[in-house]
User: Fold this.
Amino acid sequence: MDHLDHLESTSVYILREAYANFKNLCMLWSIGKDSTVMLWLARKAFLGHVPFPLVHIDTGYKIPEMIEYRDKLTREWGLNMIYGMNTDALKKKQTLPSGNVDHLSCCRTLKTEALKHTLSGRWPRHRYNHLKNKYEIDSNTDAFTGVIVGVRSDEEGSRSKERYFSARDRENQWDVADQPPEFWNHYKTDFAPGTHVRVHPLLDWTELNIWEYIQREKIPTVSLYYDQGDGKRYRSLGCDPCTHPIASTSKNVSEIVAEFKSGKLSNIAERSGRAQDKEDGGGLETLRREGYM
Amino acid sequence: MNIVIAGHVDHGKSTVIGRLLADTDSLPEGKLEMVKRNCELNSRPFEYAFLLDALKDEQSQGITIDSARVFFSTAKRDYIIIDAPGHIEFLKNMVTGASRAEAALLVIDAAEGIQENSRRHGYMVSMLGIKQIVALVSKMDLVKYDKATFDAIVAEYKKFLSDVNLSGEFIPVSGMAGDNITAAGNRMSWYKGPTVLEALDIFIKDPPAIDKPFRMPVQDVYKFTKWKDNRRVVAGTVATGQINVGDEIVFYPSGKTSSVKSIEGFNCPEHTTASAGEAVAFTLSKQIYIKRGEMAVKANQDHPKVTGRFRANIFWMGKNSLEKNKKYMIKLGTTKETVELEQIIRIINGADLSSETTKRCVERHDVAECIFTSQQALTFDLTEENAATSRFVIVDNYEICGGGIIRQALEDKHLWLRDYVMRRNYKWETGIISREDRAERYNQKSALILITGEKDVGKKSVAKAVEAKLFAEGKIVYFLGIGNILYGVDADIKAPGINSNKPEHLRRLSEVANIMLDAGIILIITAVELTNDDLEIIKGTIDTDSIEVIWVGDSPTDVNYDVKASGVETIDEDIDSIKKMLQNKGIIFKP
Assistant:
């Protein structure tokens, strides 16, 4: 077994544990490279199938290619696809692009709030109907008690402290200082009513591992990650107004892997193109304690 | 390779790692400058430890709360350094960090010497199963790089390590000044051994345990019919050993047997073998009913232990103490069972390994040797034989509160029964029709409805009424009075007097029931005042999870029943509530 095999095996074990232990389980799919690898790992774990819904939080400001790619894979892989949205805030223009709020408030409203209420079932869930080829309001409003999320511990400081199975209280809050122990492949799969557990199968993967795995498995990824001829490509995907491409001429997966191995990117933080991280001297950690991915 | 760095609080772990990162150019550009600038702004002296303490809480308190993971590489390989907190309050975080590691760096402050957690962490590292360690005697700058101080610590700690079956190198270092971290420097010419960086590269990657007997805790049995996939696969991660297509396997504790027909996967080349560490899924040649929690074992290799009583070494991290006469959940492999503490043999003081035998409960941060009893039999190996399948955790009130390794299998009260059942299951011949096939055809799942209560409360009336109702609705259902067994199947042991050999009566009743359940029937049995012990015998014999207990009458009981029925007066309501329960459990369908 090489290192990628080992990472794959561990992630598959975690996904199977999650599926065996949580009745209302879902996987967050941000359309980015990490959660797409995670989706692929679910297909590995369940013999090509994905036996739980995928949830995407659509902020209304996602780059259009992302939504196209999402729906394409939904059809091709027969995914049980759900998206949630803060339609109220968008209507009232409580967003950064409308000029009414700052970065953190915008993320809080369009992502954290939308995520919280989509998971709890309080807000409408839009579910893809494969027979009619369109999204419809889902009649199922049961709260998800297990939520699989594709965070990696090398992304930034607060994520390096995560557990594979991480408890969130009723308000989705994360108590970093008092986390359950986790050892010998035993995770927190018992939880009090009203709380939920976040499952993190990708914790041990690095950004390079993700690309090497995409290369090995030939996983389809959204075209935004590749230079289309203007010498720019996205390294991390988010909302259009707050995500910026990096200067790079990598046109395909193998060029990206080579770029990483050359060390060219090693001194630039992966999320450096994400504006919300820079506010408040630790914006992402503040967001994550409140329930952000 | 995963390395944990542990030791007493303030002994300088984070500083050593911070230095290691800085001196190997492993930090993102600007990080070092940023932390230095922040220190200037807050007029605090710069410390390498700040590099790691990414979370705000930690910076304000100055201690590592959780195990931060740091990625870093040498020319030889990639490392994940897990920084385990040294403060006793955060033992559970230290355990979490250390359990993911293949080797450990134990840090001891040269000036303060060996402290409580230097030993406790060493002991935990040993219990968690880490064999390779290196001890770093840190802050050598504070003792003027004195060789005698170093030698004294080495002598004392070496003795301790050998008491917990560990051994390893000792390196004198200074995180602050950088001695012996990535380069030797010239202040400790008396030391000739490797630097920390070199010591890391000397650690040997744990080879997967292929030489051990094959063990795979069953994670699940999948059949994704919804996607028109008719494969029925047993899924799990191989703990130890190796399995090939065609191998005969036995599942414990049920004792059922089959053989591997194929190894299945998605987007991978076809393979016919799987070994330790691999997450696999395989189909079986003979269709048998097995479920999550069993352990797959190769038939021609050493068998695991199967019992509901065992002696173990445990460590406890719960806010509440571990006590007798209280039910806990044990998680072992993929099994989850109810367990009770039967006896505390001794409490070991994790800090100095002295032992105490008078304590009545195991308190937070205690390490102890105990006997546990579980309700149903568990499958495991002894730690000396196969560590991977000897490890368990204990859950109290939703939280993992303790961990342990099993040292000895002990006889339990159901041993006599299990031998019968395992032999029966081993020899059991199945037809081509599976349980699922029958359930689909009959539009019902087979289930045992046990109707019990005191004498003359109307158990039989309820039973016969339920039978009639379900029959009228097209269900395949049968009422079996216990007398029908007593004078027939039990004729040879039916002595005058009562309950002369109750366990054997129950076993035979259960065997008859087991056959009828395998045939897909909903079986209704009445019996006078069954106890929880009786139920355990029945559950231990019958090969299904669907046993529903109905308690009839107003008298109090400690039997765990599913429905309480009041008897003759309100028989229609009783039938209704029993029906509803069967629907909720998916035994019959809601209209």
DSSP finds 14 helices and 27 strands in chain B. Residues 258 and 286 of chain B are 5 Å apart (CA to CA).
